[in-house]
Design a protein that fits this description.
One of its GO terms (molecular function) is riboflavin reductase (NADPH) activity. With about 210 residues, this protein is of the alpha/beta class. About 35% of the residues lie in helices and about 20% in strands. Helix 1 crosses helix 6 (about 190-200). The longest helix is centred in the middle third of the chain and has 16 residues, at about 85-100. The two termini are about 30 Å apart.
Length: about 210
């Protein structure tokens, strides 16, 4: 499978790239600066560019089987929100995918993005309530991405995480679609693994699994 990964220089993104390569996939890692990913592999192509550069995005998206985004929002406590670079980046990615393919999009987010299956529980309520008060820009980014995804015909999946700071990988990961109870923490390795697994799970299309350590 040929995949393009955005956010490949982040902690989850680096793990995602390595897991995809270990699985035998051809990986294009798109990032803002060279030398941000200390990894070399025959099946790895690193491309540097801006997240809203449509022509550059076309180069790295067209002809692939799936696109994965491990991009995350900047954390700020400022009350005013003037720019949404993460949502703008997703808008550009989605636009290019709609025009040139592929249809399969996996993106990383939090339960601040709501799913129709969500029921009121701590794992679906708290991650939206707390950022709205204390991290308004990150909350606005999530809501912006949610609006974009729900308006597109792409085959998207949102892998939702709450606390990606678990010290171990436990016994692998489990998921909830928001309608069953879930734990709050997940390791970065398991978050990346869930994203990669999602590329092969058609039953997760238009779903928003919350991933957590078993």
């Amino acid at each position: 499978m040929k995949v393009t990964i955005f956010g490949a220089n982040g902690q989850i993104g680096q793990l995602l790239v390595k897991q995809a390569l270990d699985a035998g996939h051809e990986v294009t890692a798109y990032m803002r600066r060279m030398n941000a990913l200390e990894l070399q592999h025959d099946k790895l192509q690193i491309v540097v560019g801006d997240i809203t550069d449509r022509e550059k995005l076309r180069e790295v998206i067209a002809g692939r089987d799936a696109v994965l985004s491990a991009l995350g929002p900047k954390i700020s406590i400022k009350r005013s929100v003037s720019e949404l670079p993460l949502a703008d980046g997703h808008k550009a990615i989605i636009s290019v995918m709609e025009d040139f393919g592929p249809k399969r999009l996996i993106t990383l987010a939090t339960p601040a993005i709501s799913a129709k299956e969500d029921v009121k529980q701590i794992a679906t309520v708290l991650p939206g309530f707390m950022p709205k008060i204390f991290m308004p820009s990150a909350y606005a980014e999530m809501r912006g991405i949610e609006k974009l995804l729900k308006a597109t015909q792409l085959d998207w999946t949102v892998v939702r995480i709450i606390d990606p700071n678990a010290k171990t990988d436990g016994n692998g990961y489990a998921i909830s679609f928001g309608d069953t109870k879930s734990k709050m923490s997940v390791s970065r390795y398991n978050a990346a693994k869930c994203m990669l697994d999602a590329t092969l799970k058609d039953e997760w299309i238009h779903k928003m699994p919350i991933v957590f350590n078993k």
